[in-house]
Amino acid sequence: MTILPGDELAAEQVAGERTGGGHAGRIASRLLKTLFSLLVTLFGLVLVTFAIARLVPIDPVLAVVGERATAAQYAAARTELGLDQPIPVQFVRYLGEVAQGDFGHSVTTSQPVLDDVLRVFPATIELATLATLLGVLLGVPAGVLGAVNQGRWPDHILRVVGLLGYSMPVFWLGLVALLFFYGHLGWTGGPGRLDVAFELSYEFDVTPRTGSILVDSALSGAWDVFRNALSHLVLPVAVLAAYSMAYISRMTRSFMLEQLGQEYVTTARVKGVSERRVVWVHALGNAAVPLITVIALSYAALLEGSVLTETVFAWPGLGLYITQALFAADLNAVLGGTLVIGCAFILLNILSDLVYTMVDPRAR
C-alpha cells in the first residue's frame, strides 16, 4: 500500500497525540497512586497515635480536672471529652478533628495544640536544617575520600570517626560539649536561644517573620542579636551534625564504591579523563541520585530525633515541647506534636521522590 506524503504526516500527528496522551495518563496515574499512598499513610499515622493515646497509662480526664476533682466532675469531663463513647466512635471523632487541624487544647499552656506547635516548630526546623547542611558539607566529601582511599589509612580514620559520631549518645555528647566549650572555655553560648541580656533586645528590635531567630534578626538588622543567637546554635547544631555527618558519609562511601566499580568509570579512565573529573563528576553524579533520599531521611530523623538535644540545650523547639508535655501528662500536646513530625517525615519522603525523578531521567 502506498502512503502519500499527506497521509504520512497525518499518521505522525496521530502517533504523537497517542504518545502524549499516554504520557499524560501515566503522570495522572502516578499522581493518583501517590495521593492514595499519602492518604493511607496519614490514616495509619492517625490510627497509631490514637492507639497510643488509649494504651499509655495516662488518664486524660485527670490531666484536665486534677486529682482532687469529685466523681461528678470527673464524669462530666469524661463525657465532654467523648471518652464514654465506644472506641470506634472515639476514633471517628478523633479522625474528623485531626482532618480539620484540631488537635485539642494543651493542658499546660491552655492554648490550642496547633498554635503551640506552629510557635515552637520553627526553632526545631532551624536546628535540624543547619545540622543537615553541615552534615552534608562534611559527610559527602568524607564519604568520597573514604571510597577513593578504600583500605588505606584515610579510609580507616574516617570510618572510625563516623562510627563514633553514629554510636555516641546524643545527650552525653551534648552534656560534654556544654561542660567543656561553654562551662570551661566560654567559647560558645549556653542553653536557650539567647542570653538573658539579649531577650529584651530581641522583643523590641526583631520583627518575627519566619520563626527562625537567625533569619528574623538578620532581616531586622539586629546583628548583635544575630551573633548571640549564632553562638547559642553552635553546640546543638554541632552535636546533631555529628550524627548526620556519620550517617551521610557512610552511605556516600557505599554508593561511591559501587559507582567506582562500574564499567563507565573504567572507560572514562582509559579515555584519559582526569581522576578528579571521574570521581567528582561522573561517579558522584550517579551516586547523588540515591544520596538525595539518604539526605532527606537524615533531615527527617533530625526533626523527630532532636528531642534529647533540645532537652539538654533547653532549646524551645518541638522536641522540648513534647518532652515537657509528656512529663505533665498533656496527652493532646504529645499526640499533636507526634502527628506533625510524622507528617513532616511523609512530606520529606514525597519531596525526595520528586527530586529523585528530576535528577535521574530514568526514574520518570
TrEMBL record:
It is a multi-pass membrane protein. The keyword tRNA processing does not apply. The keyword Transmembrane helix applies. Residues 121-356 form the ABC transmembrane type-1 domain. GO terms for molecular function: dipeptide transmembrane transporter activity. Keywords: Cell membrane, Membrane, Transmembrane, Transmembrane helix, Transport. Its main location: membrane. InterPro entries: BPD_transp_1_N (IPR045621), MetI-like (IPR000515), MetI-like_sf (IPR035906). It comes from the Bacteria. It is found in: Cell membrane. The chain crosses the membrane at residues 35-56, 127-148, 160-182, 229-248, 279-301, 321-348. GO terms for cellular component: plasma membrane. PANTHER family: D,D-DIPEPTIDE TRANSPORT SYSTEM PERMEASE PROTEIN DDPB-RELATED (PTHR43163:SF8), DIPEPTIDE TRANSPORT SYSTEM PERMEASE PROTEIN DPPB-RELATED (PTHR43163). Belongs to the binding-protein-dependent transport system permease family. This is Peptide/nickel transport system permease protein. It comes from Aureimonas jatrophae.
